[in-house]
Design brief:
It is a single chain. Helices cover 58% and strands 9% of the residues. The protein is α+β, with helices and mostly antiparallel strands. The chain has four domains: 94 residues, no CATH class; 147 residues, no CATH class; 193 residues, no CATH class; 48 residues. Strands 1, 2, 3, 4 and 6 form a five-stranded antiparallel beta sheet that branches. A four-stranded mixed beta sheet has the order 5-10-9-7. Strand 9 and strand 10 form a beta hairpin. Helix 8 runs antiparallel to helix 9 and helix 13 crosses helix 18. The C terminus is likely disordered.
Length: 506
């Protein structure tokens, strides 16, 4: 009965906002019988016909409840599937969720910790500081007087998530059978990604681990504060951490009144992002203004305070090299280099014609690069790279889509703080320095140090391997010039072995 009721609620919301128009737009070749049936279902009727379809879709998700708002936010990261208009509307979705009862919140904390609140806390604020789709946050103090925040998972949220995900899977399997053009959206893959992300956000132990890793990384950068996790009071459904007192970064007037240099603040934000991506290979992937506060006690040296670590991204060394090299080649208008990088990295099929790919990149890039550098969006540039590559059957990796979404957030935030910000001018030296460290003797030495534990295990095996190779050559398979081949092969292998031995003893 619950399933049928939910289906009716979804149908009513779709009818109210006329979302059937979207299906007719996606599948314009429907037969007149299918169109008549679709319209008779009432789903194409709209009470909001004066609004664009993209805005109606976002409003429909809000009407369906907090979980669907979260789904919309996650869909906004899939800019390889959605148009820029749809992605932009969905990225503006906000969690407008009423707080659940404070007594219920206290009960959840006490059940999780196995004791009364006053056993662990000196005080606990009944009025929540914030309330979102997955959790709400209460202020508190520990017995030793330290100010903390207690993040509490909404009761029964996991059950609700699984129920709604079941319906989404049902639609993802059903709709492509009726509308073949939907197959290119890979709906099952999209729902699977949504499931992984949502379920990960319900495990606060994982979020606490993310916060702990970033806190350790940012110890080298005093301009960033990541709250300390109170591990002894953290469970799967509650997260207790140090409280951050600062000015929300979206409150520009307050920052100016405090004497903060906004240009410097924007530059620090860019450095934070690129250090996460290219030095830590682990980045906060939900850096919207609601998750950033500014400590303005020292206005000359403002300090970022980062919150909410439920969504993070991680890049491999191959991803890092791909991004840095592509950005450098792209802004130097070396489109042949961009094409070759995509081919060498396996991002486009080997059989793809490099000339055609180079021409496609030139066509979409020249109109952008003809403008002043401060007007160029790195996030949109990355999106264009992905769009062209997708036309050549490139499969966009989820971590790169998360990166693009985060980069767009950082860009819009940086330009909000300092409208004349030249993002490319600020990050180009960073790219060049990073590439210099990766390529050449310094990069070779760093990789040798990283591989040392593996080499130390395999080095004793090399004599045996060399013996087996030489023993194979003694078999009478090839007789012509075999002795000369054995001599040169033995010379090469001996040189390799000797070099490794010298490196090992040094």
């Amino acid at each position: 009965m619950e399933f049928q009721l939910r289906v009716f609620q979804i149908w009513w919301v779709c009818r109210k906002f006329g979302l059937g128009e979207g299906v007719l737009r996606i599948q314009p070749s429907l037969s007149w019988i299918s169109r008549m049936f679709w319209r008779c279902s009432g789903i194409s009727f709209s009470l909001k016909s004066n609004l664009p379809l993209e805005e109606r879709f976002a409003l429909a998700l809000e009407a369906l409840g907090p979980l669907y708002v979260k789904v919309g936010q996650l869909l906004s990261t899939r800019r390889d599937l959605l148009s820029e208009e749809f992605a932009a509307c969905l990225s503006r979705l906000q969690d407008r969720v009423a707080a659940f009862d404070s007594e219920q919140a206290k009960e959840v904390v006490e059940q999780s910790l196995g004791a009364k609140l006053d056993t662990f806390f000196g005080s606990f604020d009944t009025e929540p500081l914030a309330s979102a789709s997955m959790a709400q946050v209460h202020g508190a103090t520990l017995k030793d007087g330290r100010a903390v925040v207690v993040k509490i998972l909404r009761p029964n949220i996991e059950k609700q998530i699984k129920k709604d995900l079941g319906f989404l899977y049902f639609l993802a399997k059903l709709l492509p059978n009726f509308f073949p053009s939907l197959r290119r959206f890979r709906l099952l893959e999209v729902v699977s990604q949504i499931e992984r992300t949502l379920l990960a956000e319900t495990d606060f132990m994982a979020e606490a681990a993310n916060a702990s890793v970033l806190r350790r990384h940012f110890q080298v950068l005093p301009q960033v504060f990541v709250p300390e996790v109170i591990w002894s009071l953290t469970r799967k459904n509650i997260l207790v951490s140090e409280r951050a007192f600062g000015i929300p970064i979206a409150h520009k007037a307050e920052l100016l009144a405090a004497g903060v240099d906004l240009k410097k603040l924007a530059s620090i934000g860019i450095e934070i992002f690129f250090r996460q991506v290219f030095e830590f290979s682990f980045f906060h992937a939900d850096l919207h203004p609601g998750n950033i506060f500014i400590d303005a006690k020292d206005p000359e040296n403002p300090r970022y305070q980062l919150l909410d670590f439920g969504i993070v991204g991680s890049l491999s060394s191959e991803d890092q090299h791909y991004l840095a090299a592509n950005f450098l080649a792209f802004f130097e208008r070396d489109y042949r280099r961009v094409a070759k990088l995509h081919s060498d990295s396996g991002w486009i099929p080997k059989e793809a014609q490099l000339g055609a790919f180079e021409s496609a990149m030139r066509t979409v890039s020249e109109p952008i690069l003809g403008r002043p550098l401060q007007e160029i969006s790195l996030g949109l540039t990355l999106g264009r790279l992905f769009q062209v590559a997708k036309d050549f059957d490139m499969e966009i990796q989820p971590q790169l889509l998360l990166l693009q979404k985060t980069l767009l957030n950082i860009e819009s935030l940086g330009r909000y703080l300092h409208p004349e910000l030249d993002l490319w001018g600020a990050c180009r030296p960073f790219f060049k320095k990073w590439m210099k460290q990766q390529i050449g003797l310094r990069g070779l030495w760093r990789r040798m140090q990283e591989e040392a534990p593996i080499l130390s295990e395999r080095l004793p095996q090399i004599p045996g391997m060399l013996y087996r190779i030489l023993h194979q050559l003694d078999r009478p398979v090839i007789t012509v010039k075999r002795s000369k081949g054995k001599f040169f092969l033995g010379l090469v292998l001996g040189g390799i072995l000797g070099g490794l031995g010298v490196w090992w003893f040094l």
